[in-house]
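Subject: for your reference before the review

Hello V.,

The reviewers asked for a structural picture of the protein, and I figured it would be easier to keep everything in one thread rather than splitting it across files. Below is the amino acid sequence we used in the manuscript, unchanged from the supplementary table.
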Amino acid sequence: MTNQNSTEIKSSLNDTQIVEVARKIDEFILDIGKEYQPTGIEFAAIAVGRLMVFTSQVGCHDTFMDMLSEITKLREPAPLSKTGDLSQESA
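And here is what came back from the structure prediction:
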């Protein structure tokens, strides 16, 4: 079994599954936005906070924090629609 706090991040998901999970998360974000209309920073703070709790409970908090540190070094992410054109499907 792989140590969840390993510095090497491996996925048990294939590329198709990763895209499907990302798409479901995108839809969830858009649904929350429609229902509660949080600001971007409000939603991001809540989501990251909940991910911190989750990763702590499943034993990979250190790896998650390392990953966040690396993410902050990256360029601006692509818009949500990159995982599928959600705006057209919702119309």
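For the response letter, the relevant points are probably these. Helices lie at 15-36, 40-57, 61-71, 86-90. The longest helix spans residues 15-36.

Happy to draft the paragraph if you're swamped.

O.
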